[in-house]
């Protein structure tokens, strides 16, 4: 190894190398830790939906994109949270389906994984109308309405995109299920809205108050 | 110092030398073991570097494949685009691999390579964990990576991955605990918990690395020893096989020769007997045939006697007696027995003693006489004219135990070609086939004589120059001469004075040097200049001296401009400032036409061409013999017809070729006892009395040897190959010229080893050999067995 290589070239190469790798990793980290659009959900269970009113244990809705890879972690965390809850509520996994897609489109591994969790029923949401009604814009968005129809939790249950394990959202949802809600959380996942949709500000939601979100 | 003290001192020196030698060998084995272990470690590292280069590439491909499999797309409602994880795996993985794979291809085995590989491996772990959504199973990649990195057997390679892992956990745990632990307020020690598990594995792996490296070193050490032992065993086996093969060949050749040698006279006996029995033979022819039968019978008898002697001595069945006998009488007996034969050929046969004469020596007088008769008989047989001389002396054994009785049998005969010299001691071998036809003989005499002399504790060696004569030196063990009287040999008619070189046996120089020739002597060595100055002064010349090529060039130019140009230049070729080659070239360029005789210790044929190409007229390799020097000078500056200026001493040594340093004759150092008149000759110096004016120079040279060797050691420790080679070159040349021929071969070997193959151990060994030779140059007076009496 020449003196030039040892004193100048190699250190320079290493500095550049560390910089490039560090930059790449930090960008990946940024992407993974960037939350999706939070739900703009009403404080009480909206009227005019296809769902029955909430039972005494309330109702938990999780809006999912059937092909979102990040949402595997959300379903996995959902199973863990429900098993940990004192009284698991009726839970519906609402799978976004494009308006022009067939009935098999949402039947993915994610559907089957959600369907395998006790207390969880899966339904398709053609055109994302339900998601619009509940103000959910990101796959993994979970909304919990207690027995009296009040929303006590809104957000995701993972610490990042597709990241399994403990998270603030999971902890908050479990607390809400156990009757001691303490806040919402960020949600990480794919968007439930196609880019051709009208801007969110123009969306009109059929909530109980008819308020525009 | 008494003889016993001297012996004890020598034994102690030998033990110390042997201890040092063993320590050197042990150190060399250890060093070779270390080197071998290092080589093995580097080889291992290079192999693992290559494996990691492949592994990193595979991991990169696996990361991209995994990203595509797990997260092919990211969705926005019904539309999908390629997932950023795929780009991240491709770009980050590629960037991570760029440096370590590049280093693994370019700088295999270097620490920097494995450390960069270690970092890349940990970044790959991080990437994989990320791509799999933080699955706990993927964390095993880190532990597997550390284990694989440990196969470098370098615990330091674990440091960077551990620091990266611990640092990542610490930083993220402190500033974004949710990303690491999923909770906003993780305990501050949790990063330590994670790092602790990594450290736990590190400790185990580091222990394995250190242990593995130690075992590798031990195994390498063992391998070096085993290989060395194997090599020695192989050499021994090879030597034994060669010896057995030679013995077999010798036996076959012996049988074939014996059969032939016996058949020849038998054929004559049987054939002429048949002729005589036929009765048709005239009386005159009958007598002739009977003479032939008789001579054939004599020859057959001699042959059978020789064969029996040879057979006995070879099988160890020849009985030798060792009794006190008078060496002077043995010599006188040989002379009286052979003088008639010599006189018949018109040869003079003389014997003299060199040095003190013991009254008795302990040997087998009959066998010694047999040897001497054979050697003298051969000398007479192969000498058509001139003389045969015997020079006897007693010399101290090199091991200090007793003395040898040595007799040089010198003739002015045909001489023996160098390539035949060693073969003449083989049974049935003479210098050439025609010798037997011309001179007769069984061809067994020398073989028997050598074996008998060896059985008597000595040997026979020979030196010769074709057309000039031969020298056979026989030595036999003389026993311990302590208490033996020293006598005057002239009682037996043998003079006590050594032969002079200008006696009838000497050969006059072919050419003489003009005494008024202006000679420039160029040599950087003071000793060499003194030596050549003395030789030239003997020849009546007074040289001008220069210490290097540059000074010589200036002197030659100045003399030329002053119309006192030199008639001849003697030029050492290796000198500082300006060497002889450059000086000769410059002189020729400057129009100096004087013959230049190159003096160099190099004896290769190419050196002569190199000297001639530089402009030299002739070439003499060191050690330079005075006679040769003057003979060569005489060709260029011959004496005028009316000039008889060369002193006889100046051609000392011209009569008989001194054996070369490589010959057996000189290779065994001889210590001569000395009388008072010889005490000025430096101990161990082989210069004859005729060269007594060189003795002071030789003594100074001998005294300077320890300093010269110390300087060589310093050059060795500094790694100065050129300096060491030059110093050894001068030592080789000067030693040989000053009668220390035994130094020439090891010094020349040192010179060659220094300039061709810098093996410190081998160079140290050669220096040790020279040191041992130097140590042997003790003053003789203290070791003399007894005060020689001059009666």
Architecture overview:
The complex is a heterodimer of chains A (213) and B (791). Chain A is of the alpha/beta class and 213 residues long. Chain A folds into two domains: 1-33; 59-202, Glutaredoxin. Helix content of chain A is 32%, strand content 15%. A five-stranded mixed sheet of chain A has the order 3-2-1-4-5. The longest helix of chain A has 31 residues, at 3-33. Chain B is elongated. Chain B contains 22 helices and 16 strands. The two termini of chain B are 25 Å apart. Residues 506-511, 642-679 and 778-791 of chain B have low confidence and may be disordered. The A-B interface holds A 1, 10, 13-14, 17, 20-21, 24-25, 27-29, 31-33, 65, 67-70, 72-73, 96, 98-101, 128, 139, 159-160, 162-168, 170-171, 190-195, 197 and B 70-80, 83-85, 88, 91-92, 95-96, 98-99, 107, 110, 112, 116, 123, 126-127, 130, 133-135, 176, 178-179, 181-184. Chain A: InterPro entries: Thioredoxin-like_sf. Chain A: This is RedB protein.
Most extensive chain contact?
A: A-B, 47 and 39 residues
Total domain modules of chain B:
5
Q: How far apart are the first and last residues' alpha carbons of chain A, in Å?
A: 66 Å
Can you name the CATH architecture of the largest domain in chain A?
3-Layer(aba) Sandwich
| Average pLDDT over all residues of chain A | 85
Radius of gyration from the alpha-carbon trace of chain A, in angstroms: 21 Å
CATH superfamily of the largest domain in chain A: Glutaredoxin
Strand order of the largest sheet of chain A: 3-2-1-4-5
The first-level CATH class of the largest domain in chain A is given as Alpha Beta
Strand content of chain A: 5-15%
Count of alpha and pi helical runs of chain B = 22
The value of Rg of chain B in angstroms is: 41 Å
Organism (chain A): Alienimonas chondri
InterPro entries (chain A): Thioredoxin-like_sf
Protein name (chain A): RedB protein
EC number (chain B): 2.7.13.3
